[in-house]
Design a protein that fits this description.
single chain, 361 residues, 5-stranded antiparallel β-sheet, 21 strands, 23% helix, globular
Length: 361
């Protein structure tokens, strides 16, 4: 195992800069997830750690060794790709052992390592099968097994679950989590799926157009997003954003509603801001409820009620701006209804109108 350090890492393609200086220390045994939409630079960053892309500036270290000019095969890493990259003419055993054979390892040591990996991944019944005889999940486990047998210092995962269906993705996500708990190897994992990122990561790197927009634990990134970009990307459904005017610790929305801000924003200068509010922090006011004072309530004009089983998502507008509220499934609200919502003022977020940065961040 080893720590991985990125020091002002940049990447250019000709005159186009795609990675704008990323600084990060990944601790020994830590599971880091690099998350962001397509084109944000997350896979490029991973490939630079792997040595598959040359860096333009900065340094990458694995352990105490700078690896900028070290070949991928000599970096003591193992990589799992989204397309499995299995040899179709080889059995599962041969696929898992191939890398060890070409390194000249003894048959006894190869057999020992493959047996251990097969046991961890529950692949023992499939060792003599060809990839075409396996399901998608089994193929992905073989790809992971091929990485495990190398016993590397660092695992690199490049969107390994992208080709799986939704149910299998959940199952494999749990298997990867268990695998990391068992092996404790430093891991860097790339995904565009923020649910996958939140459930797997010790810490997240949220990428935005080649920049690390925020680095933190899933809880930190979710509860205190550094920018509107992070708040809108992390969370399902994402954070709601409403235009407001702030004065004296109170935010006034476009429909005239007034919300008291948390104490952290009590001294915010008067002016225009963007208010952030997550869907689960708006609670229904039922007939007869005393609830919060009127100053802490919002009226939502519902366009679409989306039933999800345990919850219902109410999609509508407040002051002409799009809003989603998550309410219990038995709430009884439907399209074109107009529920009143209590707002948990302690969960409000205030962002700069121009830069999108969190106030005080």
């Amino acid at each position: 195992m080893a720590k991985v350090t990125l020091n002002s890492v940049k990447k250019n393609y000709g005159s186009l800069r795609v990675i704008h200086g990323v600084d990060m220390e990944i601790k020994d045994g830590e599971f880091i997830v690099i998350v962001g939409p397509s084109g944000c630079g997350k896979s490029t960053l991973l490939r630079m750690i792997a040595g598959l892309e040359a860096i333009t500036d900065g340094t990458i270290s694995i352990g105490d060794r700078v690896v900028n000019d070290v070949e991928p095969a000599d970096r003591d890493i193992a990589m799992v790709f989204q397309n499995y990259a299995l040899y179709p003419h080889m059995s599962v055993y041969e696929n898992m052992s191939y890398g060890l054979r070409i390194r000249g390892m003894s048959k006894e040591e190869i057999a020992k390592r493959v047996a251990r990996a097969a046991e961890i991944l529950q692949l023992q019944p499939y060792l003599q099968r060809r990839p075409r005889e396996l399901s998608g999940g089994q193929r992905q486990r073989v790809a992971m097994g091929r990485a495990i047998v190398r016993e590397p210092s660092v695992f690199l995962f490049d969107e390994p679950l992208s080709n799986l269906d939704a149910k299998l993705r959940v199952q494999m996500r749990l298997e990867i989590k268990r695998l990391h708990q068992q092996l404790g190897v430093t891991s860097v994992y790339v995904t565009h799926d923020q649910v996958e990122a939140m459930t797997l990561a010790d810490r997240l790197i949220v990428m935005n157009q080649g920049r690390a927009e925020q680095i933190g634990t899933p809880a930190e990134v979710y509860t205190t997003p550094a920018t509107t970009y992070v708040g809108g990307f992390i969370g399902s459904p994402p954070m709601n954003f409403l235009s407001c005017q702030v004065a004296g610790g109170v935010a006034q929305l476009q429909d005239g509603s007034r919300l008291s801000l948390p104490a952290a924003y009590a001294n915010a200068p008067a002016g225009a801001y963007t208010l952030g509010l997550r869907p689960e922090h708006m609670l229904l006011v039922r007939p007869g409820d005393s609830g919060a004072p009127a100053a802490g309530r919002l009226s939502l004009k519902v366009d679409v009620a989306e039933e999800l089983g345990a919850d219902t998502l109410l999609h509508g507008k407040i002051g002409g701006e799009d809003v989603v509220a998550r309410v219990p499934s038995n709430a009884g609200y439907h399209d074109n209804s107009q529920p009143i919502l209590n707002v948990d003022s302690s969960q409000l977020h205030l962002f700069d109108k121009e830069t999108g940065k969190r106030r005080g961040a």
